[in-house]
Specification:
- It holds the Pfam family SseB.
- It comes from Streptomyces bungoensis.
- This is SseB protein N-terminal domain-containing protein.
- InterPro entries: SseB_N.
- The chain is of the alpha+beta class.
- It has one domain: Trna Endonuclease, Chain: A, domain 1, CATH 3.40.1350.
- The chain is 30% helix and 20% strand.
- It contains five helices and six strands; from the N terminus they run ααβββαβαββα.
- The chain has a four-stranded mixed sheet. The protein has a two-stranded antiparallel sheet with strand order 1-4.
- Strand 2 and strand 3 form a beta hairpin.
- Helix 1 runs antiparallel to helix 2.
- The protein starts with 12 loop residues before the first helix and ends with a helix.
Length: 133
């Protein structure tokens, strides 16, 4: 039985938007595309499904960056998530704009595709102002 291969040769619209933003951080079309894209939000393996959870809320997975700053990792494809967080087996698919519109007030950054070739990290302010559409 063959293991299915991820089709990472063709970039998703969200990945194309990330590439465009790497060249021009003010690209409104790319920001709109990104805000309307769905992202994969990793679900910790110790999270319990449905136990007092509201379907409209999401527990954000928070990691520490090298400097100790908190960051929430999200991904544009299963392949990218598997490359960067191979230990994660579950995720929720959420529109990035909806996630951004409910972003917490504290200083919490958002890393889209982390350290991949087209990764982008936004500050808490950047998430709320650029992506909450």
């Amino acid at each position: 039985m063959e293991t299915p291969a991820y089709d990472d040769h063709l970039p998703t619209p969200a990945q194309q938007a990330l590439d465009a933003l790497a060249v021009n951080a003010e690209d409104q079309a790319a920001l709109d595309t990104l805000a309307h894209s769905e992202v994969l939000v990793p679900v910790p393996d110790d999270a319990v499904d449905g136990e007092g959870a509201d379907a409209s809320t999401v527990a954000l997975p928070v990691l520490e960056q090298a400097g100790g700053d908190p960051v929430v990792p999200v991904f544009t494809s299963e392949g990218t998530m598997a490359d960067l967080l191979p230990f994660v087996s579950r995720y929720r698919l959420i529109p990035l704009g909806a996630l951004a519109s409910q972003w917490p007030e504290e200083e919490l950054s958002l890393a889209i595709d982390g350290s991949s070739d087209h990764g982008l990290t936004l500050t808490s302010h950047g998430v709320r102002t650029l992506l909450a559409r």
